[in-house]
Amino acid sequence: MEKIKAVIEALIFASDTPLSPERIRAVFPEVEKTEIREIIDQLVSEYHDRQGGILLQEVAGGFQFRTNPDLSLWIKKLKTAKPQSLSPQALETLAIIAYKQPIVKSEIEDIRGVDVGGPLKGLLEKKLVRIVGRKDVPGKPIIYGTTRKFLEVFNLKDIMDLPNIRELKELHQQQELLDPDQESSESEQETIVEEEAVAKQHDDENAEENAEEKIEEVPDL
After folding, report:
1. Would the CATH topology of 1-69 be identical to that of 83-178?
2. pLDDT tens, 30-72?
3. pLDDT > 70 in the chain, percent
4. What's phi and psi for 103, nearest 5 deg?
């Protein structure tokens, strides 16, 4: 058992992306999935109880070693490269997609009140957003949703773990995707975006009671 535990620990450490119990079981087909999960849970507890610099966390459907967020201040001092940034416009667009997905470009623009072509292109290039299909209406507009990388960046197990928009920005800053000198005056605008997104969601839910939209699924990129 200890040998298997050590191998699982090494596999998770060596993986560039969060490693799921299913992928780990491919290495140990003779070991039940429940047993593998028990071993992973033991490792999670051990790293948590140590209160050290490394934690084992469940992220995006898998498990990954990550630095303790309580030590982010010291880690930032070590990094010299300028962090990749998202503009306020891109962050607002990403938040709308995250909470409203699946969603088409025109629906995002209805909420923001401006064209989102530029921010949307940037989010696609950063692989935080993906094309999930086309809406079965005239013109067949492209439908957008978030990616596994989005879950990894924001340290989420799945989309159901989404925080509110203000917490989303804080998480974003912790992952060093936002410019640390970003003006705090954007908070009021974020609140407006959140309220509009919630209102739009209620409208959509009422509309869905009268008509069901068909979506053509395409594979995750």
Report:
1. yes
2. 888 889 999 999 999 999 998 889 999 998 889 999 888 888 7
3. 71
4. -145, 150
Query: Which CATH number is 1-69 given?
Result: 1.10.10.10
CATH code at 83-178: 1.10.10.10
- Longest alpha-carbon distance in the chain: 59
**146 pLDDT tier (thresholds 50, 70, 90):** very high
For residue 218, what are its two tokens? Answer: 């395409």
Sorted by where each begins, the domain ranges of the chain are 1-69, 83-178
Burial label for 98, CB within 10 Å (0-12, 13-18, 19+), is buried
CB 111 within 8 A of CB 200: yes
Identity of the residue numbered 39: I
CA distances from 34 to 21, 37, 214 (A): 9, 5, 37
